Amino acid sequence: MPKKPVTTGIRDKVAITLSMLCVLQCLFLPFVVTLLPLLDIWWLQDHFLHPFLLLIVIPLTIFTLFPGFRQHKNLQPVLFATPALLLLIIGAFMPESVTEKMLTVMGATLLAIAHIRNYLLIRKSCRIN
Asked: What residue spans define the domains of the chain?
């Protein structure tokens, strides 16, 4: 009988989606920023949004990757997520610049890779066991 997964993959899918939305926000917001004063969308500005997203991303990553690790016993997702979170934290508290954007995009991409890998490892461990 296959082993029941610790997580159904929903948390990984949510985390992957959030990571990709973060990348899109970082890449396309400079083009949209000229409209912000007209639209009064203050919550989309980097200095507010990035720290706020960290409050969601860090717990979601912890509550997704560690149960997955207990199931598949592979540290690879955690090894991808650790520098990813550090890059996101550094980027969230830097002044807006090209460097801040690069750190955030790299961090979000690495984090998405960590969650994709975790999801695949969970699925693989369910089929094998």
From this structure: 10-128
Cα distance from N-terminal residue to C-terminal residue, the chain: 8
Which SS3 state, helix, strand or coil, does residue 64 take? helix
For the record, the structure tokens of 107 come out as 């961090």
Between CA 89 and CA 125 the distance in angstroms is 31
The CA distance from 42 to 62, in Å, is 29
The alpha-helical segments, DSSP class H, found in 9-97 are 10-32, 36-39, 46-72, 76-92
Tell me the pTM: 0.70
Cβ–Cβ under 8 Å, residues 16 and 116? yes
Tell me the CB-side half-sphere exposure of residue 63, using CA atoms within 13 A. 12
**Which residues, other chains included, contact 104 with Cβ-Cβ below 8 Å and sequence gap of 6+?**
22, 26, 50, 87, 88, 91, 92
Q: What is the pLDDT of residues 64-91, one digit of tens each?
A: 899 889 989 999 999 999 999 999 999 8
